[in-house]
Amino acid sequence: MSMRKRRGFGLVYLFAVALVVLVAFFAYAAWWFHYREVHPKVVAAIPTVYAEEILSEGWLLWHEEILATPYAGKIVYSRPHEAHRVFKGEAVAVIDTGRERIRLASHKAGYFVPGLDGAEGAWRFSEIWLGSGPPKMKAAFKWFENGHALKRGDPIGKVVPMPQNLRCIAFVAATPDVRRSVESGRLSIKLMPKGLPLSTEVLASEELVGVYKVYLSLSPYFPPSVLTSRKLSFYVFVGERSGVEVPESSVVMRNGRQGVWVVEGGVTTFRDVHGMPISSGRFVVTEGLKAGEIVIEEGGKAKEGGRVLLW
Known about the structure:
Elements: H1 3-38, E1 42-44, E2 46-61, E3 65-68, E4 73-77, E5 84-86, E6 91-96, E7 101-105, E8 110-113, E9 115-116, H2 125-130, E10 142-143, E11 149-150, E12 155-161, E13 167-173, H3 176-184, E14 186-190, E15 198-207, E16 211-217, E17 231-247, E18 252-254, E19 257-264, E20 267-272, E21 274-277, E22 282-287, E23 294-296
Antiparallel strand pairs: 1-23, 2-13, 2-17, 3-12, 4-6, 4-11, 5-8, 6-7, 8-12, 9-10, 13-16, 14-15, 14-17, 15-16, 17-22, 18-19, 19-20, 21-22
């Protein structure tokens, strides 16, 4: 065989091999896309109980009185950097005048706080309630240090007389459940995500655009630890809802309706659902879906009447 014929044969052979590979590739790709279409990722709806909570912020109110020193000198606190309970006449600090050490006592029973935030005497219910948003603090709370030199009449801290009710002004999202709670005169809040609900009394309320402004009594809750900040973060607890849980990606909008693609008899069907998204990319369905039903995980890739092979 001549060189020219061998070269021509080689080109034909390479072309034939390339054609076979190309045909095999397209055949495999067609099979793969068909396989993916009839074997989409599916999930089963899991029964769940969801505690509906709304993160909110409030501003605390209490009665307080500044305690001043009648002597000049260096101060030493009995319990520095700590808000603590005291009884009437209990020593909270000692002032060293240079000639003698004099006990400084609380004039009332309650909590003593060895520090101030600058809002004492100016933090009033009327000013906060009449505002349309959160009040602004002029300065952060500051502890007073041991050994600090004071002049006569300088403040050494403040006394919060007890007993008294801790009160709070807060802005809360005006959902239907919150509206019912406010109208009933009681609002349940949780101070920690995993804590127990605290039933508070609604002393006053005003509905604004999309939110409720509420004035709450937090009694009997009033630990001394809250006295170093006038701001309180909490969760409004509006109850528990039972339903089923699916990935948030399963829930799609179709023609203005919210729903999921349910696999029934090997065929996908769009079904309307009601519910709410929760943390970690999950969605709680409260109406429209039962536990154990199979839905398409990536709802945006499904279509009406699509065939699905589960096995």
